[in-house]
Write a structure and sequence with these properties.
The complex is a heterodimer of chains A (294) and B (325). Chain A contains 14 helices and no strands. In chain A, helix 11 packs antiparallel against helix 14 and helix 13 runs antiparallel to helix 14. In chain B, 72% of the residues lie in helices and 0% in strands. Chain B is built from 15 helices and no strands. The chains are: A mainly alpha (294), B mainly alpha (325). At the A-B interface, helix 1, helix 2, helix 4, helix 5 and helix 6 of A face helix 2, helix 5, helix 6, helix 7 and helix 8 of B.
C-alpha cells in the first residue's frame, strides 16, 4: 500500500513538470534575464557587463519614451473611464426589463470577439480623412466640419480610444450586468416604498454594491492599456510621426527594429513595475476579502 | 471481495455521472447573466421607458455602425468608394473584392491573398488549443486533488505571471527557442501559445475541479484508481462544460493574437491577423478599401461565428478569465 501511494504521488509530480518549467523558465527566468540585461550595455546582443542604472537614465531622457508614457497615460485614463461609464450605463439600461434583451447584449458584446487588429483597421477606414466620416459630413453640407483626427498629431491617440472603447465596453457591460442580476429584489421594493427615484438607488446604493465587478473590470481594462499594441500598429502605426507611440510598441521597436535590447529591457522592467504596483494591491485586497468569506 | 469492489465502483461511477449531469444542467441554467426572476408586469410607455429604449437604440446603432460600414464597403466597387459616400448602400454590389481578398490581395511582393494566413491560423489554433487545454486540465486536476508539494507556490507565481507584460518575456523566449531550433516554426508558436495560455487555463480548471466534491475523488482512490486513471476516466468525462468554455476562450484568443504570431511564427506561418495588417498597411499604390474590408471580415469570421453560436458560453469565459484579470 505504502509503495503504491508513493508511485502515485510521483505521477502527480511528473504531471506538473510542464507547469514547473513554464513558471521557472518562461515566467521567472525571462523576468530575471530581462532585469539583468536592463543593467548592462547590451545593444544587438546581450552583454554581460554592469552599467548600473545608465540604461534607465537614457530611457528617461528619450523623448520618444516620454511621449509614449504620456500617450499611454492619456489613453489609459480615457479608455478606462469611458469603458466603465458606457458599460455601466448599458448594463443599467438593459436591466430595465427591456424587450429583446438577448439581441441587445449580443450587439454590445460582439466587438469584443474581434481582434484589436481588425478593430483598428475598421476604424482606420471609418475615420479616413478623405473618404470617411469627414467626407460624409462635408457632403451633408457641413463643409467646415473637421474630423481628421487620425492624421492629426494632437488627436491621433484619441482615435485609438474611440476604436478600443467600441471594442471593450461590451465586456464591462457583461460584467456589470452579472453584478446587477445579483442585487436583491427586496432592495428595489424597499426603495419604491420609500419613494427613492430609481437613478438615485443605482448611483448611491447599487453602484457601491458592484465593487467586485468594478474592480474586476478595472483590472481587465488596465491590463489592456498596458498591452495596447495591436490596435496602434493597425490604426496609426504609432503615427503621424511618433504622435501615437505607446510603451509596448516602443519596446518592440527597440528590441527588434533598432536592436537596442538594453534600453528595451529597461523599458519593459519599468512597464512591469507599474503593472505590479497597481494590480498587486487590488489583487491582495480582493483575496483578503475573499478569505474573510465576504 | 472482488464483487463488492466492483459493485462499489459501479455505484460510484453512477454517482459521478449523476453529478456530472447535474453540474452540466446547472451550468446550462445558471448562466452568469440569467434573466431576472419572474416579475413580468405590463410596463406602461412612460417617457422614462421611451428614454430607456431611445438610449439603447442609439447605443446599438453605434455598436453596429462599424459592422455595417465594413460590410457595405466590402461589396462596393472602387468607383463607388471614391465618391466618399461611406454610409450609402452599394449601387452595384459585387463580390469581386471578397475573391480578391481571399486569393489575390498583395502583401509586399506576394499576391496570394489572405487564404494562406487563414490556413496558417488554423494550423496554429488547433494544436495550441488542444495542448493548452490538456495541460491546463492536468494542472487544475493535480492542484485540486493531489496537491503535490510546492504546486501551490508555482500556481501563485503562475497567476502573477498572467499580469507580466509580454514585452518582458518576448526577447529571452526568442533566444531560448532559437537555441533549440524552434524559433520561427509551427511547434515554436504552438509552444508559445501554450505558455501564455497556461495561467488562465490552469485557473479555469482548478476552479472547476475545486467545486467538485472531494468524496468523489476519495472514493476513486479507495478503489485503487491512480493519478492518470482517475483523471481520464472520472474527471475528464465530467469536464465538458469547462472544456467548452476553454475551447471558446483559446480559439478566440489565439485566432485574434497578433503580437506573438508576429514575433514567433516566422514568415512561413504568419497568422491571419498579421497578414491582414500587412495587406492593409504595407501596400503601395492605390489602396483598395473594398478588398481591405473584405479581408478584415474574413479574418474576423471565425471568432465572430464562434461568438454568435456560443452565446452565453462566451460570457462565462469572460467571467472566469476575469478572475485572473
Amino acid at each position: 500500500m505504502a509503495k503504491k501511494r508513493q508511485s502515485v504521488s510521483i505521477a502527480a509530480y511528473i504531471a506538473i513538470i510542464p507547469m514547473a518549467l513554464t513558471v521557472l523558465l518562461a515566467y521567472l527566468g525571462t523576468m530575471l534575464w530581462t532585469a539583468r540585461v536592463s543593467v548592462s550595455s547590451s545593444r544587438t546582443f546581450p552583454a554581460s557587463d554592469f552599467v548600473g542604472a545608465s540604461q534607465y537614465i537614457r530611457l528617461f531622457n528619450n523623448e520618444r519614451w516620454l511621449l509614449s508614457l504620456q500617450n499611454v497615460a492619456v489613453y489609459g485614463v480615457l479608455f478606462i473611464a469611458a469603458c466603465l461609464i458606457i458599460g455601466f450605463l448599458l448594463a443599467v439600461f438593459i436591466d430595465q426589463k427591456v424587450m429583446a434583451e438577448g439581441a441587445l447584449r449580443t450587439i454590445f458584446l460582439y466587438p469584443y470577439a474581434m481582434s484589436f487588429v481588425a478593430t483598428g483597421l475598421i476604424w482606420q477606414w471609418i475615420l479616413n480623412p478623405e473618404l470617411g466620416i469627414q467626407e460624409v459630413l462635408h457632403q451633408m453640407g457641413f463643409t467646415n466640419a473637421k474630423f481628421d483626427w487620425i492624421v492629426d498629431q494632437d488627436m491621433a491617440i484619441y482615435t485609438i480610444v474611440i476604436a478600443t472603447v467600441w471594442q471593450a465596453s461590451g465586456l464591462v457591460m457583461a460584467l456589470m450586468l452579472s453584478g446587477l442580476r445579483g442585487v436583491d429584489e427586496e432592495l428595489w421594493k424597499a426603495a419604491r416604498i420609500d419613494g427613492i427615484p430609481r437613478w438615485r438607488v443605482y448611483v448611491s446604493i447599487v453602484l457601491p454594491m458592484l465593487g467586485a465587478s468594478v474592480s474586476t473590470a478595472f483590472v481587465l481594462l488596465f491590463v489592456m492599456v498596458v498591452k495596447v499594441f495591436d490596435s496602434v500598429v493597425a490604426m496609426t502605426q504609432g503615427g503621424p510621426g511618433t504622435a501615437s507611440e505607446v510603451p509596448a510598441k516602443f519596446i518592440m521597436d527597440y528590441l527588434f527594429g533598432r536592436a537596442n535590447i538594453g534600453l528595451a529591457s529597461a523599458a519593459s522592467i519599468v512597464l512591469l513595475s507599474t503593472v505590479l504596483a497597481i494590480v498587486a494591491p487590488l489583487y491582495f485586497v480582493r483575496n483578503r476579502r475573499a478569505a474573510k468569506g465576504a | 471481495m472482488g464483487q463488492v469492489v466492483k459493485l462499489d465502483k459501479a455505484a460510484m461511477e453512477k454517482a459521478a455521472k449523476d453529478k456530472a449531469a447535474a453540474a452540466h444542467a446547472a451550468a446550462a441554467n445558471d448562466s452568469i447573466i440569467a434573466p431576472p426572476p419572474v416579475r413580468r408586469r405590463k410596463l406602461a410607455w412612460t417617457p422614462a421607458r421611451i428614454g430607456v429604449y431611445g438610449f439603447l437604440i442609439v447605443a446599438a446603432l453605434f455598436f453596429l455602425l462599424p459592422l455595417y460600414v465594413m460590410l457595405i464597403t466590402s461589396v462596393k466597387p472602387m468607383e463607388e468608394i471614391r465618391l466618399g459616400t461611406l454610409f450609402a448602400l452599394p449601387v452595384k454590389a459585387t463580390l469581386e473584392p471578397w475573391l480578391q481578398a481571399w486569393s489575390s490581395a498583395c502583401t509586399g511582393l506576394e499576391c496570394n491573398g489572405i487564404r494562406s494566413g487563414f490556413w496558417n491560423s488554423v494550423a496554429i489554433v488547433v494544436p495550441s488549443t488542444i495542448l493548452s487545454i490538456g495541460i491546463g486540465a492536468v494542472n487544475g486536476y493535480a492542484l485540486s486533488f493531489w496537491r503535490p508539494r510546492g504546486a501551490g507556490l508555482l500556481f501563485a507565481i503562475l497567476m502573477m505571471g498572467a499580469f507580466i507584460p509580454v514585452q518582458v518575456m518576448v526577447y529571452p523566449l526568442v533566444r531560448v527557442l532559437a537555441s533549440v531550433n524552434l524559433f520561427s516554426s509551427l511547434p515554436g508558436i504552438v509552444l508559445i501559445h501554450t505558455i501564455f495560455g497556461m495561467p488562465v487555463m490552469t485557473l479555469l480548471f482548478r476552479n472547476y475541479y475545486a467545486a467538485l466534491p472531494m468524496e468523489l475523488f476519495k472514493a476513486a482512490r479507495i478503489d485503487g484508481g491512480g493519478f492518470w486513471r482517475i483523471f481520464l476516466q472520472l474527471m475528464l468525462p465530467m469536464s465538458t462544460p469547462v472544456i467548452v468554455v476553454a475551447v471558446i476562450m483559446q480559439v478566440t484568443g489565439i485566432w485574434n493574437d497578433f503580437l506573438l504570431g508576429l514575433v514567433f511564427a516566422g514568415s512561413e506561418h504568419l497568422p491571419m491577423t498579421v497578414q491582414l495588417n500587412n495587406i492593409i498597411n504595407t501596400t503601395t499604390g492605390e489602396r483598395l478599401y473594398n478588398v481591405n474590408m473584405a479581408a478584415t471580415i474574413l479574418t474576423s469570421l471565425v471568432p465572430l461565428a464562434l461568438y454568435f453560436v456560443s452565446g452565453r458560453w462566451f460570457v462565462r469565459g469572460i467571467a472566469s478569465g476575469a478572475v485572473k484579470g
